[in-house]
Amino acid sequence: MEKQTRYTRIYNQLSELIMKTQNPTARMATVCALLHHKMPGFFWTGYYMLDRGELIVGPYQGPVACLHLKKDTGVCWAGINQQKPVVVADVHCFEGHIACNPKSKSEIVVPLYNAVGEIVGVLDIDSDRLNQFDNVDAEELMKINGLIFKY
């Protein structure tokens, strides 16, 4: 199935599912579960949330994660600091990459904004394949993130 079509189906499914609660954590957990199991190549799918200036792991699917990410280091902090999606074709070429799992080869990070437009965290997805992510992923995951704080 074409990637764009798959994302459209996932977005429609999520739109219906997550409107059953206004709890952002429950919504993030549902997003992670659906993306992780419906998108090929998604090895680790989860959120890192800003908590008093630190990035702390939130809901996720996949192997055990780093609980805390060193400030201003790695792809997740790049997404926070640049305030835009970051696509990394080969994590071993990304200076300061935080290797929570040695199987990770490529990564995408998409900022998560609350209802008033402040960055509160990131959606972080790792793949055990090189060059897994592109602009289609970035655009579609931004749309999906937009559902978390939609009421």
SSE arrangement:
Layout: H1 3-18, H2 24-38, E1 44-51, E2 54-61, E3 68-69, H3 74-82, E4 86-88, E5 106-113, E6 119-127, H4 135-145
Antiparallel strand pairs: 1-2, 1-6, 2-3, 4-5, 5-6
Overview of the molecule:
The chain is of the alpha+beta class and 151 residues long. The protein has a single domain, classed as Beta-Lactamase (2-Layer Sandwich). 34% of the residues lie in helices and 25% in strands. A six-stranded antiparallel β-sheet has the order 3-2-1-6-5-4, sandwiched between helices. Strand 2 and strand 3 form a beta hairpin. 35% of the residues are buried. The model has no long low-confidence stretch (mean pLDDT 93).
In short:
By secondary structure, the protein is α+β, with helices and mostly antiparallel strands.
